[in-house]
Design brief:
- The chain has seven helices and four strands, in the order H-H-H-H-E-E-E-H-E-H-H.
- It has helices at 5-18, 23-29, 39-43, 46-64, 112-115, 140-153, 160-186; strands at residues 70-72, 86-89, 104-108, 132-135.
- By secondary structure, the protein is of the alpha+beta class.
Length: 187
């Protein structure tokens, strides 16, 4: 393998950064007068990514993962301990969003006696709720396409806050469909 001087300098600086050398020491090793041009080596070290991810995943995970529920295969077995299976229909009459009533999207795990009525807007907001169990064979694709059409149709006409909330729901439903596709590929 041939190595040129530029590649050699890059490799040396990268290895120094991986070993924990400061930007000042890397600049000194490359004979730079300041640290401005060596920040790229410190910023791209792969060994930094794992500790940063480990330290921040717990806090940032809920922000990135909109779908916080779980996926279930059937409504026959009890899903949430001590609660009857409450099927959530795939109909949202409160908004002018067409959802074909082709069955339930999942099971609600909220204990109404203990927690009170849901303040969200089922079935759309269910995808954002940690007490939601999405049915594997539920009409999630139909829900996703319906919300996407609504968002596209109302982009300039509706309150942007509503559209932003629906975008969160769209992302959560999309995450469900991605998980379902990945699980289907593993089988």
């Amino acid at each position: 393998m041939m190595i040129n001087p530029r590649r050699f300098r890059f490799s040396i600086a990268t290895h120094m950064a991986e070993e924990g050398a400061s930007a000042f020491h890397i600049a000194e090793g490359l004979d730079h007068t300041d640290t401005q041009n060596v920040r790229v080596y410190v910023g791209t070290v792969s060994s930094i990514a794992d500790p940063v991810a480990k330290a921040t995943d717990a806090a940032l995970g809920p922000l990135v993962n909109r779908f916080r529920g779980k996926i279930i295969d059937s409504i026959r077995a009890p899903v949430f301990e001590g609660l009857p299976n409450q099927v959530i229909p795939a109909v949202a009459p409160d908004l002018a969003i067409f959802h074909p009533n082709v069955g339930g999207i999942g099971i609600c795990g909220r204990d109404v006696r203990k927690d009170g009525l849901c303040r969200l807007l089922p079935p759309l907001s269910c995808y954002l709720c940690p007490s939601f169990a999405a049915l594997r064979d539920g009409p999630h694709e139909e829900m996703l396409h319906s919300i996407e059409r609504f968002i596209r149709h109302n982009e300039g006409a509706s309150d942007q806050r509503v559209l932003m909330q629906l975008e969160d729901v769209r992302i959560a439903i999309h995450q469900v469909t991605v998980q379902l596709a990945a699980n289907k590929g593993e089988q």
